[in-house]
């Protein structure tokens, strides 16, 4: 019988006997899959697991804290946080091309992660032989199949591992679908903010700024995004939409009037979509009052933004993200 309890028990037993007295490491992305995989392995082998979280500075407001505090509180996991914001921003300096950004972020991510890994391996403890990955059943199918739109963009967390990888992989979610992973996570005591999290791209806000990525622009977008998320949650719409990217058109300016003067600011795009699997999507018909509230708040509260626009494009032809 399939129950979350059975899945957990089975995996815990299997992981324990596989790992023995060796150690494992796991990269946390802030997403559901890696969090649940890590929590499951932590349940099995406790502090023989070390988690690594690379803070690339491209996260949304509060997300790093969620991993640092809430996740650790719920699992008791041993966590190494690498603050790599400056490194990523330096690498991204002057870059506007979306694919270029993705490549840089993916490359830096692996470098920072490998360095943290090397430091963990170099300490006195037992050998680190295992790497935990939050691979789901659809990932297995998608990366093997290689059909359709999945290959249009280079997803840096799929197939981005070094070729001379010496770890043995532990993929405890390999047979599960997303909703099952959420149930397992819930059973493991993870907070809703992590378990019910909507999809968020690995390259983070780096691909939601059309134009060069800078600290100032990231801060601006973080503020706008936080407002949109707050209002969508307050309106009880989190479960109705798949996700709502908030995009900063950093290379665009338009004329506005705010207070008693002319402004020349940036537009923010709201991209709420409904979807089953992100392969196709429809733009969400959000209530006008909610859109109005978000628009008013963003233009009032976020300096340098004087216009909020709504993306009413399906996928296809538009992808969910703008880059
Ligand atoms: P697109 O923009 O291709 O997005 O319609 C489909 C889904 O994938 C997410 N996405 C990513 N997730 N790494 C990820 O982990 C990535 O590089 C990436 N690019 C897009 C996107 O948020 C949407 O849910």
Automatic annotation (TrEMBL):
Catalytic reaction equation(s): XMP + L-glutamine + ATP + H2O = GMP + L-glutamate + AMP + diphosphate + 2 H(+)
Keyword tRNA processing: no
Pathway as given in its UniProt record: Purine metabolism; GMP biosynthesis; GMP from XMP (L-Gln route): step 1/1
Domain GMPS ATP-PPase stretches: 2-197
The keyword Nuclease is annotated on this UniProt entry: no
Description of how the protein assembles with itself and partners: Homodimer.
Protein name: GMP synthase [glutamine-hydrolyzing]
Organism: Streptomyces justiciae
């Amino acid at each position: 019988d399939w129950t979350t309890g059975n899945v957990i028990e089975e995996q815990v037993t299997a992981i324990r006997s596989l790992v023995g007295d060796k150690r494992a490491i796991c990269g946390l992305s802030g997403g559901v899959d890696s969090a649940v995989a890590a929590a499951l392995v932590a349940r099995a082998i406790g502090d023989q697991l070390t988690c690594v979280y690379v803070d690339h500075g491209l996260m949304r407001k509060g997300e790093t804290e969620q991993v640092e505090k809430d996740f650790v509180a719920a699992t008791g996991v041993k966590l190494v946080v690498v603050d790599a914001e400056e490194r990523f921003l330096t690498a991204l300096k002057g870059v506007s091309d979306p694919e270029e950004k993705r490549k840089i972020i993916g490359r830096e991510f692996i470098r920072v992660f490998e360095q943290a890994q090397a430091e963990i391996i170099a300490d006195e403890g037992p050998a680190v032989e295992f790497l935990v990955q939050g691979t789901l059943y659809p990932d297995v199918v998608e990366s093997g199949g290689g059909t359709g739109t999945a290959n249009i963009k280079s997803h840096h967390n799929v197939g981005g591992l070094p070729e001379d990888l010496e770890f043995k992989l532990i993929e405890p979610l390999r047979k599960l679908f997303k909703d099952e992973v959420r149930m397992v996570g819930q059973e493991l005591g993870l907070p809703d903010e992590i378990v019910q999290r909507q999809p968020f791209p690995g390259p983070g806000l780096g691909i939601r700024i059309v134009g060069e990525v800078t600290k100032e622009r990231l801060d601006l977008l973080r503020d706008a995004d936080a407002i949109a998320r707050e209002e969508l949650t307050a309106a009880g719409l989190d479960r109705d939409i798949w996700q709502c990217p908030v995009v900063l058109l950093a290379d665009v300016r338009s004329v506005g009037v705010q207070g008693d003067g002319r402004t020349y600011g940036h537009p923010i795009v709201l991209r709420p979509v409904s979807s089953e699997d992100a392969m196709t999507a429809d733009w969400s018909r959000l209530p006008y009052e909610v859109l109005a509230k978000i628009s008013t708040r963003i233009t009032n509260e976020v300096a340098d933004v004087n216009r909020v626009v709504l993306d009413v494009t399906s996928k296809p032809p538009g992808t969910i993200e703008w880059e």
